[in-house]
Amino acid sequence: MLNRLVLEGIVSKSIVQKTSPSGVIHSSFVLEHRSFQYEAGLKRQAWCKVSVVASGSSLQSVIQQLIVGSKISVEGFISQHQSRNGLSKLVLHAEKITFLIHGE
């Protein structure tokens, strides 16, 4: 089954890094997206904040360069995460992160 998401936005919260008991590095941050989209022939504003997780070492060189305000594109898949208090949220699991040039 297809599960792909590409979202552009700005890093809006600092990166948090944790290492799992098995030694895998998990980096997480929040991506804020704002754009105008067309729906039913009308222009509307789209806005969201999405939690992003990058696991493993393949994206660490990019993650180390991220700061709050970085404009990036994230490509990956979404999955549901449940917090300790039982609340669920969708999380974007990054497989590719690209810096965007201002004005794109």
Task: Tell me the total number of β-strands.
Answer: 5
Work out the radius of gyration.
Answer: 15 Å
Task: Please write the string of helix (H) and strand (E) elements.
Answer: EEEHEE
Assign a percent range to the helix content: under 10%
Strand content: over 45%
Describe the structure.
With 104 residues, the protein is mainly β. The protein has one domain (5-99): OB fold (Dihydrolipoamide Acetyltransferase, E2P) (Beta Barrel), CATH 2.40.50. It is 4% helix and 65% strand. It has 1 helix and 5 strands. It has a 5-stranded mixed barrel with strand order 1-2-3-5-4. A hairpin with a 5-residue loop joins strand 1 and strand 2 (25-39). The longest helix is centred in the middle third of the chain and has 4 residues, at 60-63. The relative contact order is 0.26.
Topology, please?
Elements: E1 5-19, E2 25-39, E3 42-55, H1 60-63, E4 71-82, E5 88-99
Parallel strand pairs: 3-5
Antiparallel strand pairs: 1-2, 1-4, 2-3, 4-5
Feature tags:
single chain, 104 residues, mainly beta, OB fold (Dihydrolipoamide Acetyltransferase, E2P), five-stranded mixed beta barrel, globular, Prisomal_replication_PriB, Primosome_PriB/ssb, Replication restart protein PriB
Describe this structure in a few short sentences.
4% of the residues lie in helices and 65% in strands.
